[in-house]
Design goal:
Order of helices and strands: HHHEHEHHEEEHHH
Number of helices: 9
Number of strands: 5
Distance between the termini: 63 Å
CATH superfamily of one domain: Uracil-DNA glycosylase-like domain
Structural class: alpha/beta
CATH architecture of one domain: 3-Layer(aba) Sandwich
Radius of gyration: 21 Å
Shape: globular
């Protein structure tokens, strides 16, 4: 065997990645935020969509509607009317809970399995466990999503620049909760804040002359994939609700 033969570059990279993966390192970490998309060139011509026609139509509706079709000045002024408006199109998943909840939970979108109940799958089970640990009953919590149905590959930047954020803020104002938890950095800009750089960040949002405490944390899918992050969320919750226990 000729030991002086050099492997192709792609093989060398593959071998290096395998070595680090076997060593237990499968992610790249850096303290400073990085704009990973800054240098990505835009295609010269539109790339044909590989999505099924039905999914492509749903995506077009949810991205375009916040900009053009939703008149936030004419949204329903009560929670019952808002729920009816929210379900005015097929395949939408309703929020659940009641006005003046002890805690409102906001997530980007329903789970894939959701039909009549929001967060009916693994994310919902995780949330239920967290709420039990927080000593909150189901009727004390209002659960809502920023968009009305599960939409893989949603253009969250386009949604944030449209009226979806205004609709979500209107929803929060109608619920008027004592506290608000936002799961997932995708929707934090909807509340007028930057993406979170940590696992849990405290904010406040001002709505109709009232300040509502906001705990922004990673998404429920991320907490399912990285169980160690749950501890950070729990510490943030204690600091938020009972500083004496957090210490």
């Amino acid at each position: 065997m000729d030991t002086g033969t050099q492997l192709p570059l792609c093989k060398e990279l593959e071998a290096a990645f395998d070595w680090w993966r076997d060593a237990g390192v499968d992610c790249d970490f850096e303290d400073a935020p990085v704009n990973w998309l800054a240098s990505v060139p835009q295609p010269a011509e539109p790339v044909p969509s590989t999505q099924p026609p039905a999914m492509a139509e749903q995506r077009s509706e949810l991205v375009a509607a916040p900009r053009a079709a939703i008149d936030t000045g004419h949204l329903p002024k009560d929670l019952t009317g808002f729920a009816d408006w929210w379900l005015s199109a097929p395949e939408r998943v309703p929020p659940r809970g009641r006005k003046h909840a002890e805690l409102m939970v906001a997530v980007p979108e329903p789970e894939r399995e959701d039909r009549d109940v929001l967060l009916s799958g693994p994310q919902g089970k995780l949330l239920a466990s967290m709420l039990r640990a927080m000593q909150l009953e189901a009727d004390q919590v209002y659960v809502a999503s920023a968009i009305p149905r599960h939409l893989p590959g949603a253009d969250w930047q386009a949604l944030a620049s449209g009226q979806t954020g205004a609709v979500l803020l209107h929803h929060v104002a109608l619920v008027s909760p004592k506290r608000l938890i936002s799961f997932g950095g995708n929707i934090l800009p909807f509340f007028g804040n930057d993406l979170p750089q940590g696992s849990a960040v405290l904010h406040k949002i001002n709505l109709e002359g009232r300040s509502i405490p906001l705990l922004a944390t990673r998404s429920l899918p991320a907490l399912l994939d990285r169980p160690r992050w749950k501890g950070d969320v729990w510490k943030a919750w204690l600091s938020w609700t009972d500083p004496a226990q957090a210490g």
